[in-house]
């Protein structure tokens, strides 16, 4: 059983359980009324963006704690921006990546090579590694890459040969093109706005097409998939699908919303979008 659950949402907020911790955090999409208002008073702590970035009850939270979701152990910790080291809306993508890698293992002589760009704290990387992929995990934040290393150790994958890299995505991909290094599967979650390791500016509207062109150049001759996700307002599933099709060519294309989902009576909560390109289907 997962240690994560969406318990309720509404009035611009969401109530989630992360192991023993119940948290209230902002969620602009939750424009409806809460279904279970009696649950909210039991929250351990809350975070809001009213007059700045504010935790309430942060002192009641452990400095770090560990949960298990979809078979992956993740260390959590509060950050000043309200993040915890996991985006639960991506959990279904972890499962799909794991299945695709496992299926490919049955038909290939070598482990599929998985590249995770803008990779955060490593959940998808670890799911792919558990399935037998040879993984490369890249993020511009040294702190996030160290967090991912910690998570790898929690899962007994610190000796799994995962390449952990702190770098700017564009610079890294250009060097991989020159080296002739290829990957069978790629996941990328470009930020709306971000900076690389040396202060390189990234804006999704301006840079995503260039990133996808570089991704195309590092794909192997028989790639499995490319998954593009986004939390940027306005980047709908169809927009993400169109970007993949234009950059990578026609193949099996699918897209949809990333959802936080709870029990049968809990309303689904959209939290970003995804599109997937699969080769040779």
Labels describing this entry:
281 residues; Immunoglobulin-like; 2 domains; 7-stranded mixed β-sheet; 26% helix
Can you give a write-up of this model?
The protein has 281 residues and is an alpha/beta fold. The protein has 2 domains: 4-76, Sandwich (Immunoglobulin-like); 88-278, Rossmann fold (3-Layer(aba) Sandwich). The protein has 6 helices and 16 strands. It has helices at 91-105, 123-130, 142-154, 169-179, 204-218, 237-248; strands at 4-10, 13-18, 21-26, 45-48, 54-56, 65-69, 72-76, 113-117, 134-139, 163-166, 185-188, 193-195, 201-203, 225-230, 252-260, 269-278. It has a 7-stranded mixed beta sheet, with helices on both faces. A hairpin with a 2-residue loop joins β1 and β2. α1 (91-105) runs parallel beside α2, α4 (169-179) runs parallel beside α5 and α5 crosses α6.
How would you sum up the global shape? globular
Secondary structure category: alpha/beta
Largest sheet: 7 strands, mixed
Ends distance: 33 Å
Q: Low-confidence spans: pLDDT under 50, at least 5 residues?
A: none
Structure summary, number of beta strands: 16
Strands in their spatial order, largest beta sheet: 10-9-8-11-14-16-15
What is the CATH topology descriptor of the largest domain? Rossmann fold
- Named at the architecture level, the CATH assignment of the largest domain is 3-Layer(aba) Sandwich
**CATH C-level category of the largest domain:** Alpha Beta
- The proportion of residues in beta strands is 25-35%
Residues in helix, %: 25-40%
Please indicate the count of domains: 2
CATH level-four homologous superfamily name of the largest domain: Vaccinia Virus protein VP39
Mean pLDDT: 94
């Amino acid at each position: 059983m997962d240690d994560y659950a969406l318990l309720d949402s509404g009035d611009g907020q969401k109530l989630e359980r992360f192991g023993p911790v119940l948290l209230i955090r902002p969620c602009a999409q939750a424009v409806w009324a809460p279904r279970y208002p009696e649950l909210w008073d039991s929250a351990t702590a809350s975070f809001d963006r009213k007059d700045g970035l504010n935790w309430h009850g942060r002192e009641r939270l452990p400095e770090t704690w560990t949960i298990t979701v979809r078979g992956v152990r993740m260390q959590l910790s509060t950050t000043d921006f309200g993040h915890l080291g996991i985006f639960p809306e991506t959990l279904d993508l972890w499962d799909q990546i794991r299945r695709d890698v496992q299926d490919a293992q049955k038909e290939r002589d070598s482990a599929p090579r998985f590249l995770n760009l803008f990779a955060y704290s490593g959940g998808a990387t670890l799911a792919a590694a558990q399935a037998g992929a040879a993984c490369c995990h890249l993020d511009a934040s040294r702190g996030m890459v160290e967090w991912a290393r910690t998570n790898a150790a929690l899962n007994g994958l610190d000796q799994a040969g995962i390449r952990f890299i702190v770098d700017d995505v564009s610079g890294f991909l250009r060097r991989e093109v020159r080296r002739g290094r290829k990957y069978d599967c790629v996941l990328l979650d470009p930020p709306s706005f971000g900076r690389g390791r040396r202060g390189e500016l990234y804006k999704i509207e301006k840079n995503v097409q260039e990133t996808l062109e570089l991704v195309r150049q590092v794909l192997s001759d028989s790639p499995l998939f490319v998954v593009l996700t986004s939390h940027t307002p306005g980047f709908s599933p169809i927009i993400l699908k169109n970007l993949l099709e234009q950059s990578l060519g026609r193949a099996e294309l699918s897209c949809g919303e990333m959802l936080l989902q709870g029990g049968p009576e809990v309303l689904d909560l959209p939290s970003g979008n995804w599109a997937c390109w699969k080769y040779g289907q």
